[in-house]
Structures are given as C-alpha cells and as structure tokens.
Amino acid sequence: MRGERQRVGAVLFACAFNCVRSPMAEAIAKHYFGKSLYVQSAGVRKDELDPFAVAVLDEIGIDMSRHKPQTIDDLEEWEGLNFDLIVTLSPEAHHKALDLTRTLAADVEYWPTQDPTAVQGSREQMLDAYREVRDGLIRRIKERFAA
To answer: Which of 14, 23, 44, 46 could share a disulfide with 69, CB 3.0–4.6 Å?
Structure first.
C-alpha cells in the first residue's frame, strides 16, 4: 500500500566516498538494529576513513575505527547487491542507486545529508558539524527501522 513502509531485511547506505556519512549510518544502524537488519555501506568512489567521523561516533560508544571504505562496485563484485533498500545520503549516490534499480529490485530512499567535511573553522566547530550529521542519522535510522 502506498505510503506504508515495508519491513526491511537488508539495507545499503550509500554516499559519495564511503568515508564519513555512509559508514556513520552503517555503524549506527548496526549498533541499534544489527540483530534484525543486515547493514552495509558503500560509496560511488572511496577515500580514506575520516578521523572526525570516527571520533564523534566514539563519543557515544560506537566503534567505527575498523571500517574499510568501499565502492558500490566493490560491494557488488565481492558479495552482490542483495538489498531490500538503498538509502542514499548524497545526490551522487542517489543517481547511482537509481541507475542500479534498472537491474536490482531494491527500493531507494534519499536522505539529503550535509557533508560535514565542507565546514571550516576551529576543531570544535568542525566536530559540531559531524555531531549534527551523527545525531540526524541516529534520529532517521531509529524512526525508519524501529519495528
């Protein structure tokens, strides 16, 4: 039924580089729903894991330090893309996900999420931008995946 959300068993969080937003979402979703939900993350491209992203999750007891950034293509090659839902956090990832749905039976949801790496200022101002992303992801993930 339109407007009703289906139960999700496997979710992929996707963003541009899989070094800030999507691995944060993956770690948060695993923390809260890891027993009932298969969760992965990937980027259109990959970069080094962002230490600020690791730090702001560490503040709330979630360890993301061992995350290895990967691309959507890497993930498809290694284990296939068997996801019920792809949550995109950047425009670039959203376009990639929509392209994938031509051959993949997955729903796509776009959660526009600010890129905290764009924020300039003191270390604390930069960390605040990452905290804002973290807290927004926690809220959305809890709302979306709570049974």
So the answer is: 46
